[in-house]
Amino acid sequence: MGGGEEEEHPVCAPITLEEWNGSSSTKLFRTATITASSSLSIQRSTNRINHVWRRVLQAFVPEGFPDSVTPDYVGFQLWDTLQGLSTYIKMMLSTQALLSAIGVGEKSATVIGATFQWFLRDFTGMLGGILFTFYQGSNLDSDAKMWRLVADLMNDIGMLMDLLSPLFPSAFIIVVCLGSLSRSFTGVASGATRAALTQHFALQDNAADISAKEGSQETMATMMGMSLGMLLARFTSGNPLAIWLSFLSLTVFHMYANYRAVRCLVLNSLNFERSSILLSHFMQTGQVLSPEQVSSMESVLPMWATSLKSTKSNALHKRVHLGVRVSSLPRPDMMQLLNGVGASSHKNAKYLLAHRKGNVSVILHKDSGAGDVLKSYIHAIAMANLMEKSTAFYSEGEAWMDKHYDEFLNKLRSGGWKTERLLCPSITWRANWISHTSGAKID
């Protein structure tokens, strides 16, 4: 153990080290090979361009892509980026018109006047956002596709108001406040639906990473859109016809790209329409449709647009009313409920079903949970379907639930559907009842 002695290492066979890089075990690629024959040798991979490209891509796609996201992620993001690009190009045109209307560049314009106009515009938008959240905030999850389209439509209307503002100087404040109000709906609806879609895309509990990369993609689209918008604004300056043709063309493309984006989405959660489509098909064939099949069948347009497009107004999900207020029912219907006539429930479940003018009203118990809500809605849809074929739809609906409900849920789970809960607006009206031997009492 004297000083200066070095530890002896056992003689081993030489090895070759390889350096690999990648975000997951299935996406690794070799970057260097290290050997030690007579001297240390490091041989770098010749495909440096591929390495650089992968490093750049990591700033815009989630780690582990494409295995860490759902298959519909790429299609949606592609069209969403294109619609974002067109939005920011249009924004430069509408902003130019808005600043001109406020008086930027004119000697007669005052700073305090322009500030006050801008304040009213922003204040109206903030107030509108709060009101929209109050009235529609709980509905955004259940119809994410539809609200995504509506959000961008309202954004287009807001920009249109800004572009129109110079044409109506006497009503300038009203026009720009309407535009700000329209865009406030966009902010709430777009943010809420984006959160829902992010959760849908995340296959590996990586919602935060997906959200961050979405921010990078949007920032890149913003920079490109603003640059192109500046060029377009410069070329069309002083030419109203060119400005309006450019704006309208970009608006048409913007809505088309949004429609294609939401059509790419394949959601596996249950909402009113998807549940109706699935149950109708199951009652006819005994089979459950896949999320891809249902996605191609469900509507993504607002209800008023669907009504104009199609005369099929008797869709089952439109005939079922979930969470009905008991006192809103006609008095004869309430008497029937109190006497236990004309109402249906399933094995003392925490809901009641009442038939009224071709519609089915669902009254939920005050202690009902997510499972009860889903069960009550499936029962109501089944009863509405049987209503078209038989007059004994109450008893046949209960018989169907006894025989097929558990089978239906099991097949949904096997087909990749989420059956934990039904995505629906917040249910604020419930009831309590005490069952007796010959009737039911509603409190």
Key words describing this protein structure:
4-stranded mixed sheet, 9% strand, 443 residues, 9 strands, 56% helix, disordered C terminus, flat, alpha+beta, 3-stranded antiparallel sheet
Description:
By secondary structure, the protein is an alpha+beta fold. It contains 13 helices and 9 strands. The strands form 3 sheets. The chain has a 4-stranded mixed sheet. A hairpin with a 3-residue loop joins strand 2 (29-36) and strand 3. Helix 2 (73-102) packs parallel to helix 4. It is flat and about 90 Å long.
Uncertain runs: 308-314, 438-443
Rg over C-alpha atoms, rounded to the nearest angstrom? 30 Å
What's the helical proportion of residues?
Answer: 55-70%
Largest beta sheet: what is the strand line-up? 4-7-6-5
Strand content: 5-15%
The chain-level mean pLDDT equals 83
Major β-sheet profile: 4 strands, mixed
